[in-house]
Amino acid sequence: MENLDYSVLLYYCYAEIKDPEAYREEHHLFCVENNIRGRIIISSEGLNGTVSGLKEDCDKYMEYVKSDPRFAKTEFKVDHFDKHAFAKIHVRVKPEIVHSSLRHLDPNIRTGKHLEPAEFKALKDQEDVVILDVRSNYEHELGHFKNALRLDIDNFRDFPEKVKELEHLKNKKVLTYCTGGIKCEKASAYLLEQGFEDVYQLHGGIIKYGMEADGADFEGKCYVFDNRVAVDVNKVNPKVISKCHCCGTPSDRMVNCANPECNIHVPICEACGWKYEGACSDECKEHPEKRPYDGTGYYQKNTNGYNPYKGLHRKSEKEISKPTVND
């Protein structure tokens, strides 16, 4: 049986942080000292993260976050894996915890009604309901709820513009959903601001729905923002809905094109992966800067000079390094 000694945590919390830079240093130091890896965004409006680590280290991390009164309400979605889901730790300060172009909205003041997975499942097929996917194209093309309305957007910041096309749905119950719930906080709040009256959101997103409602009627896989790339959600009636970008056969194997100037993220079946050496086309296969293909189609992102030890003045890198087991 596979040893799943690692946890993968997905979470967010909208809460005021008066000095994001100072909190970034404190938070970052805790992660480095406890061998937590992942991507964490800190802003004046809260924090948002996906991290991985040994189960005991992740337990300490969750306790650390929730021990701060500002983040006591944080809900963690916990999955299990056989290794770290990230290569490094990045803790960054940004203007928003999810880039939305909706900075004026505070979900703590007004947002859509939260539906637990069982409530969402019971409501989603009713006649006066519209299920609205607020994620980007590459995410919902890999997997989405049956009969969901999917917007043609490349980034969540394009969501407000697309809402103009939904005016005819103002008399419906609108059920929004995303990966872990964070985008729905702002998306549902914006819908209310635009005059939609009956707006809901799937609390905990697709990930929690898979854990608590067995993922019923979620078709395909769920795109995640770590080295796993895509995870199974549906234990009841699963199906593959995405097709290989190269040959059109059913495939949910997500690959970054080996040509770094293209870098498109699309499903490519294993046969085409080897045929095109990780590229998405003959043209990209012949590109002089094509990266070597190892069968995964995953390439570590450029860190843009990010130093994981920057600002950690209290201890040296040697002092805060810990050996990793089973990595």
From TrEMBL:
From which domain of life does this come? Bacteria
Protein's GO biological process: tRNA modification
Positions of region (Disordered): 290-327
CDD domains linked to this entry: RHOD_YceA
Q: Which UniProt keywords apply?
A: Oxidoreductase, Transferase, tRNA processing
Q: What is its EC number?
A: 1.14.-.-
Record bears the keyword Oxidoreductase: yes
InterPro entries reported in the protein's UniProt record = Rhodanese-like_dom, Rhodanese-like_dom_sf, Rhodanese_C, TrhO, TRHO_N
Known Pfam families for this protein?
Answer: Rhodanese (PF00581), Rhodanese_C (PF12368), UPF0176_N (PF17773)
Could you identify this protein by its name?
Answer: tRNA uridine(34) hydroxylase
Q: Which organism is it from?
A: Echinicola vietnamensis (strain DSM 17526 / LMG 23754 / KMM 6221)
Q: What is the taxonomic lineage of the source species?
A: Bacteria, Pseudomonadati, Bacteroidota, Cytophagia, Cytophagales
